[in-house]
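User: Okay, second chain of the day. Same drill as before: sequence in, structure tokens out.
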Amino acid sequence: MNLDHLKLLVALLIVFIGIAGFYYFGDQSELVRVLGVLVAAGLAVAVVLQTEPGRNAREFARGSLRELRQVVWPTRKETTQVTLVVVALVIVVALFLWVVDLGLQKAVTLLVRPDS
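Assistant: Same drill. Structure tokens below.
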């Protein structure tokens, strides 16, 4: 077992202790108990970030944020125009399907009851 595995186990133990403390101190204020769990979770994250998988996750998050800053987001005008086009196309397709459904209904009616 290498040091990273030990650190991950310690982090898991910290989380379990935080959760157990939440229930053990059930007579205390819920705010205090929730803060205790949050502190335990923060400590566990700090321990995990000291491991190789934690460093990889941190680097991945940083890279994701860098990429997110490079995204060219549409303007409000572009978003509104595209939304209106989508709504219009949905209405057109709905009307088309309604007409096709009426035609199929008439065809089935003629096939089932030819005398009417």
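Residues 73-116 form one domain.

User: Thanks, on to the next one.
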